[in-house]
Batch of 3 targets.
Target 1
Amino acid sequence: MAQRPLLRLTLTGLAAGLLAAGCSNDTQSTMTRGFNNEVGVKVDPGNFGDATMNNHQYMTGEKQYVYDLSQRFAAEVMTTVNFAFNSAQLDQGAIDTLREQARWIRQFPEVRFRVYGHADKVGNQAYNKSLGLRRANAVVNYLVSQGISRSRLEAVVSFGETQPLIVTEGRERRNRRTVTEVSGFVAGHPQVLEGKYAEIIYREYVNSAAPESNLDTQSGSELQIGN
């Protein structure tokens, strides 16, 4: 019976030694990574300078102009495209909406856009997030076919099933959607460099400025993006 406390102490000491060794290895690994990376990598996790950038954007009015342009885009064209169940294919209704979006976007070459993908709650969350991203990419691909530079379009965000319009566990077409939004201005564009944001915001939008006959107007079946 007297040996049990000794055994317990021995095991405790062994566990402490292993933990210390593990911590030592982790510390050494961290130090090695820090030594091999650029100076300041530990100080800057990736968002260093964001506060200064945001202050600059608010002081110059860029943030407000982006908001105003987003409101105008949403007021003048349909920003949402819906999809069939478990599909990233563009039907004729989606194509008609995207043609309107493309006409608007072509007349504002200084502006960048982001497409957000969504899904309904049928299926698991990981699959629905992937499906939302495929839907966003389908929209971007079609807008590119309509003469929009891919460098001005992003399909990097998918909310999957997390932001339903209609709260339900079942199938709901209104939740299976993409939303196109203004995300900012094109860096380096002469108009933006000169700070002429107001001229961009209040530029006249003429729906027929770019005739569709000059663009790719294939039928929906030819432009479908598979599952």
Target 2
Amino acid sequence: MGHGDDHPHDGLTADLKALAAQSSRRKVLGWLAGATLLPLLGCEDANGGACAAIPEETAGPYPGDGTNGANALVLDGIVRSDIRSSIAGLSGTAEGIPLTVTLTVVDSGDACAALAGYVVYLWHCDRDGQYSMYTRQDQNYLRGVLETAEDGTVTFTTIFPGCYDGRMPHMHFEVYEDLASATSGRNAIATSQLAFPTAVCDAVYATTGYEASVTNFARTSFERDNVFSDGVEQQLAEVAGTVSDGYSATLTIGV
């Protein structure tokens, strides 16, 4: 549900206000990119150095960061790479096609320099389109926090998310300057979303367990999505793999 993002049933409506507030800034970025004929994907500008900052997006109604009720950031065990299972006294493991997500946090104003010691909080829905701690209150899986390594990377092990009505498949993430500040979404220095190539989504949703996603995915597109419709290039992950072996997704995040 992104810009109005994460409501499996009323995400489009919930996101309109957030989209309106951000659309002007992002349109300007789009015009600049078109004028200079530079791809936003890599993050390099005409001066051969500076990276484009990741577009700011809504955290949606199910952030689990303390800004809308539940706060996964204060749970014991939330700092972890494998986010497929619930923690802190809850049991349950999200089923689905395996996916590793590697995010690289870089300085958008300093030649794409890797940012070590920063923190990424990643969360997303399960293959049924439900969010733990909210629409699945008996679980807190598919949420996790990691500190970036010297090369600015974090790698999460998770499952490919489902597609719920009104949104393209996506993941949410927030970036913090350090672990000490990663206790509330109010301290995040960047909040955005990650998208997936449509061909990969088609392949995953043809497998057992993702049946509900097939119809939902057929009804939407990047052009119709209320978060990605103004440009998805900077947020579109590079994905490799197969449904039998699992997938890996990578994305660079300029902050």
Target 3
Amino acid sequence: MKKLLLLPFVSLLLLSGCKKDDPTKNAKLPEATQEGRNTVGFTLEGGEVWVPYFECGMGQDPYGKYSARVSYPFANQNGIDFLFARSDKKVLSYLTISTALIGTVTSVGEKIDSVGVFFKSESFESYGDLPQPGSRFIITKIDKMNQIISGEFHLILKDKTGKTVTLSNGRFDFKFNACACD
């Protein structure tokens, strides 16, 4: 009889233990690597570290955390299209960086004139395609043979009211066409 009473209690403990803590709390920036580790992060004004997090689930976007497409089919041959998202099931914030309408990326170096950027958080939503003066977007590695793209960024963005936000210490290191959710 004691074993039967214990079973529901143990089951409840196991099920309640499945709840994941928010890994974006007290997050640290990923290392600035060039190995295709599928990492990205940046610092928001005020010092908050932003890293992507998006839980998989029934009816959820299976590529919700990040999608880093490079020279993907039916798009610009040397284009990039990055989407990095963070959701705690209440608030969705995301950063997109794309060459879709502006340019291409074929080599390392400064590429700020080749990308359009959109950033949305709970307190900010950029509307302009082009980052503000003082922004940088640097490709530090583009390796077509091993399909790796890495870089750094410092983006100053403006919303439709003129409010600005700065995304600093940005870094990314991805395999071409990587996508995932947690």
